[in-house]
């Protein structure tokens, strides 16, 4: 295919693509491992990984070779038939979490929609009043009408009212608020172990324990949204493993197929009949191509990667701490776990991000003051050192301005 210049790409985009995204002035045209390249062949160290999607590296040869083989074998049939890859990926998910059943969709939003529908369907079977769903203020669960109602950020909801009714938002880590709103009408609750899109805010262990207790007491389903935190991002297979509880189900997407669209909702075996045949479906969900990539992801994830993430994360946090000591007037706080990290700044994060782009570093600004790092999970000491060099150069520019 003929390559276009950056200007040509931007002009075509501005003419033909719905303007619902604010884009940076960069067009990425290829990637390898932790690095991507733009139309001028400028190299960027990718500390965003497509927002935690290409976690196993861009164009990972093991995953890509499997996908290429699958492309030449079978791309799609239909969920009318059995497919080996879907069944095997379901088995992998059970093996690394708990015995249960998985529904496959094509995105995080769809995974949450499936969970939402199961919760509602089960609740309605139990009693006509059991139809209230809880989630947290500041949460992000997607943008379809159902997932948007779960999302606890008014900036995403404004203008789309009326939203799906009977969804209540609880203050993050506020046990009193949780208790005050929990009763037998609650059919289920959605939690991100660490809220990602609102700036890396973890739930506390006490809060997680109380949620589990109340769900058991009131027969409500506890669903962890692991779309950003799952599959090694926080240093464990799942974010919920940081707490001494197990959810009833969880949702996955993003890196599950390292960039091929996929989403998954996994629920404990005992709830498997709560969404019976004919009540939910997806044409593409779990097709042979995406699930083949998913199987390769599982092999990589379970092949010792968590140890590597632990080492690299320790080194990265140490370097970030040293930067905070060097630039106390710029970096206020460092939050996160594993390789899911936020720098709370006292200067505008978007200005910092622009300088990062100039230095050949991709990361992400959330709101006015948070710089978010979500590097691919395969980074090594080399990338941590390079990141440190680049971010030091960026911050020194702001420091000299006083
Ligand atoms: N849930 C969480 C925690 C997310 O971070 C996201 C996306 O950023 C979603 C849900 C929505 O996923 P998708 O954009 O794949 O629909």
Number of helices: 12
What best-fitting shape do the alpha-carbon axes yield? globular
Helix content: 25-40%
Termini separation comes to 48 Å
Spell the H/E element sequence. Answer: HEEEHHHEHEHHEHEEEHEEEHEEHEEEH
Counted beta strands = 17
Query: In CATH, what is the homologous superfamily of the domain at 62-301?
Result: Type I PLP-dependent aspartate aminotransferase-like (Major domain)
Question: For the CA atoms, what is the radius of gyration?
Answer: 21 Å
CATH architecture of the domain at 62-301: 3-Layer(aba) Sandwich
Characterize the biggest β-sheet: 7 strands, mixed
Give the low-confidence spans: none
Distinct bound molecules:
pyridoxal-5'-phosphate
